[in-house]
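Quick sanity check, Glyoxylase B2:
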Amino acid sequence: MKSLRAHISSRPPGVAGLQLNPGIAFVPFIPGIQHASPRGPLGNRATYGTQGPRKALFPYSPHSTVSTHCTGYPLHQDLGKRSGRAPYSTNVTATHEPKIHHVFEAKTGTWQYIVADPATRTAVIIDPVLDYDAATQTITTGSADALLALVQANGYRVERILETHAHADHLTASSYLQKQLVQRQGFRPPIGIGKRIAQVQRLFSQRYGLAKDEWLGVFDKLFEDDETFRVGELTAKVIHLPGHTPDHLGYQVGDNVFCGDSLFHADIGTARCDFPGGDATHLFQSGRKLLDLDDHVKIWPGHDYPPEGRDPVPWMSVRDQKEQNKHLSDVVTEEEFVKMRTERDRHLNAPRLLHPSLQMNIRAGRLPREESGHRMLRLPLKLNGLNW
């Protein structure tokens, strides 16, 4: 299997770009409204962490696991293998630390986060998922509605929606959430992302033939490297973490870093680097930037792909990552990492939702402009040398 970069890009002088195949299919999709289902495919319910038995608090997406973690104390581990649920904790929040709700969207293996200041009930949402069925081109909102229910249940005011990067494996729900929240709380939370998103937008808008007015200015806030902002009485810091993509950011709040697609769980390792603008050397440097933080700092990844026998795990400490990460532990050199990562990426398949994800996400999750009564996404065809 050739690398993803070879699959979707060719490099004109000095630029990594997406080279679409000769044929392009226009695929309509249906923005359906599917309210959050009270039960998942196996009949299990989402739960809110308590010290006693688990109780369902609100309906949720069929593919989501909802958990809560209050930082500053050890994470209680629920290791029931049949539950398929992530660990959770409801210990008292440490001073100047956020309350973190981690919500796992199992269909795409994505961690979504609500990070709140307990003192003011101010919150931010990080990397929300918009549900998309590729077989029917149908968009639904169960995962995003679960986040809204969690916000409502806790009485939060969402002041920002944050993206770590333009995702290529799932669609973002940022725009949908923004519209829902302005109706519910009377305030339009800005959607924030790193300032380098502009180069990603220019690249993929050209390759997919998107008009400039469909992507220009769709993000309300473009963060500078090391910029700080407030989450209630807490201070959050932006950390540039390139490698997976050039625009990639992490967000540090207290002793927690939401690192997106850079470091994953130690038995998974690190994110791929074969997207246009991706770079294994940069990812190594970003990983070391994270691992140079204090040992007790928690690293919260953007995804988990747990092997059989392990539940999704929302965080690991810097110390555990340094000791255990299969790609980037303290004993791995930059040369070894770059060689391993480059070779590994060469054999990875393209993400299943690559093309719809990129087209939606460079728009910040806004729906495509209506054409002839439909909203259309473009899908490149694989012709395998055929031409007539």
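Posting the structure with no commentary besides this: The CA atoms of residues 100 and 150 lie 11 Å apart.
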